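Consider the tokenized backbone below.
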């Protein structure tokens, strides 16, 4: 997706990307098998790895890359000592169709890009409109309601989308009425809850034909950079492998060193920002 050059590059440019669209783009030309979750891997020797899946199948390769997120099964086996910590914050998020009614009550900043509305008590709401440049998608307003976990009732994971949306809206009912209204106008099918987590820094480990990227390695508080760092990791790993002049594991080792440095520097940065804003403990 190309962004037209701006007259004043110093002013920056804004572009929102629908994740499902980006996912389809990234998977173009890639053979993907669904419906068989990863269970475990083994190292049969010869710098090879064999992955085993829930349907009983297995696959052998030169390298297994765990890009399976915060609750990575690959990381659990590779680095059982790695810890992902609760920050004390919970979020509920969803998408509200970008109708005329929504445009009329949404903050102007939310229609022009990503914005956050901060409260003094650990609550905040993030909003960002997404309009498909192609005209082939359903425009929406992404919203996230974040609050200290104790402000939400227990059992969020058992609630349906409508109940979650009402819970999120009720959490900010004492704010400007347009904020809770935007949440209540959501598509219930898009609403989900999650805890906000952060990873403890990791020291380099002995390199084997298994590695990690993105939140599987360096889970960070969501501030708009987590997905970008996963893409950065992927590009770095690709570069180290394709430009290598020696063994594959040497390239993987170099990747891991750079990935850990940059990834956990960002983990620390976003955590410090959140603490400064009073949005985490």
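A designed sequence for it:
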């Amino acid at each position: 997706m190309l962004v037209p050059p701006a007259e004043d590059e110093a002013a920056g440019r804004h572009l929102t990307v629908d994740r499902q669209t980006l996912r389809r783009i990234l998977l173009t030309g890639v053979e993907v098998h669904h419906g068989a979750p990863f269970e475990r891997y083994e190292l049969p020797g010869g710098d090879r790895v064999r992955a085993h899946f829930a349907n009983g199948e297995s696959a052998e390769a030169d390298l297994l890359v765990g890009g399976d997120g915060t609750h990575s099964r690959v990381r659990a086996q590779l680095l059982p000592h790695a810890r992902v910590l609760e920050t004390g914050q919970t979020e509920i998020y969803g998408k509200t169709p970008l109708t005329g009614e929504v445009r009329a009550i949404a903050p102007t900043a939310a229609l022009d890009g990503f914005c956050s509305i901060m409260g003094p008590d650990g609550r905040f709401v993030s909003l960002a409109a997404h309009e498909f440049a192609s005209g082939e998608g359903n425009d929406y307003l992404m919203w996230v309601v974040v609050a200290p976990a104790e402000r939400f009732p227990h059992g969020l994971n058992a609630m349906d989308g409508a109940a979650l949306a009402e819970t999120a809206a009720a959490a900010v009912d004492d704010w400007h009425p347009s904020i809770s209204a935007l949440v209540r106008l959501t598509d219930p099918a898009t609403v989900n809850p999650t805890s906000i987590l952060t990873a403890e820094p990791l020291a380099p480990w002995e390199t084997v034909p298994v590695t990690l990227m993105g939140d599987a390695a360096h889970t960070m508080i969501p501030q708009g950079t987590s997905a970008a760092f996963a893409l950065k990791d992927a590009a770095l790993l690709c570069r180290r492998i394709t430009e290598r002049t020696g063994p594959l594991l040497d390239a993987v080792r170099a990747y891991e060193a750079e990935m850990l440095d940059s990834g956990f520097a960002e983990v620390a940065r976003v955590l410090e920002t959140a603490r400064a804003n009073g949005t985490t403990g």
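The chain has two domains: 44-83+200-276, 87-196.
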